[in-house]
TrEMBL record:
Source taxon at top rank: Bacteria
Keywords: Transferase
Glycosyltransferase subfamily 4-like N-terminal domain mapped to chain residues: 20-168
Pfam (any one): Glyco_trans_4_4
GO molecular function, one term: glycosyltransferase activity
Protein name: Glycosyl transferase group 1
Native source species: Pseudodesulfovibrio mercurii
Alphabetical list of InterPro entries matching this protein: Glyco_trans_4-like_N
Length: 200
């Protein structure tokens, strides 16, 4: 199967989920990593894992409509080329734009879209008028991103409760919690949630 993993930072993806990428490749899957990078050495790190790397533009700490639309379009172009059967988005903006891009292309083809969510993200961390405005803008974006997913896995029960209280998760949305501190155990929980290995 072709699998695309979308992250907001290539170096962080390698550091935190490199074993997951390598494991997927060793299972015989064609894995593509999509993330902004800082230099040519980034590509080398993914190649060492047997993973294809593609870079896309992202402004991770701001909501700028023109730049964000560019992010969505770039992700659509890459996913159209890769045509994965499974997409996993990790991080605030990838959960929104990566999941949306996966649903907006090759409509009708069999594919599964998942998200791994650490927490509320920068859009809900602000205070005052600007903070409230940012959160107000982010809510429909998260709602659209979550609705594009077949399943959303949260890193803590508190994170899931936050988004449910916010009203951006549909009542029938399939969710799970993977709060394991050990990376290997976390990877197994995530793979199980996505239906790629048997449930323990």
């Amino acid at each position: 199967m072709k699998i695309a993993v979308i992250h907001e930072n290539a170096e962080t993806l390698l550091a935190e989920h490199g074993a997951l990428l390598s494991g997927l490749a060793s299972m015989g899957h064609e894995v593509s990593a999509l993330a902004p990078g800082s230099g040519p050495e980034t590509s080398t790190g993914f190649e060492a894992l047997g993973v294809e790397y593609a870079m896309y533009p992202l402004s991770p700490r701001s909501l700028t409509p023109i730049a964000d639309m560019g992010t969505l379009l770039h992700l659509k172009q890459i996913l159209f080329r890769v045509r994965p059967g499974l997409v996993l988005s990790v991080g605030a903006k990838p959960v929104v734009y990566g999941s949306l891009a996966a649903r907006l292309i090759w409509v009708g083809e069999d594919k599964r879209v998942f998200a791994l969510v650490d927490g509320p993200g920068f859009a809900f961390a602000g205070t005052g008028f600007t903070g409230r405005l940012l959160a107000r803008l982010a809510k429909p974006m998260y709602r659209a991103g979550f609705r594009s997913c077949d399943g959303v896995c949260f890193r803590s029960a508190g994170a899931e409760a936050f988004f449910r209280k916010l009203g951006v998760l549909d009542p029938q949305a399939r969710t799970g919690v993977a709060d394991q501190a050990d990376p290997e155990t976390l990877d197994r929980a995530l793979l199980s949630f996505m239906g790629m290995i048997p449930t323990d």
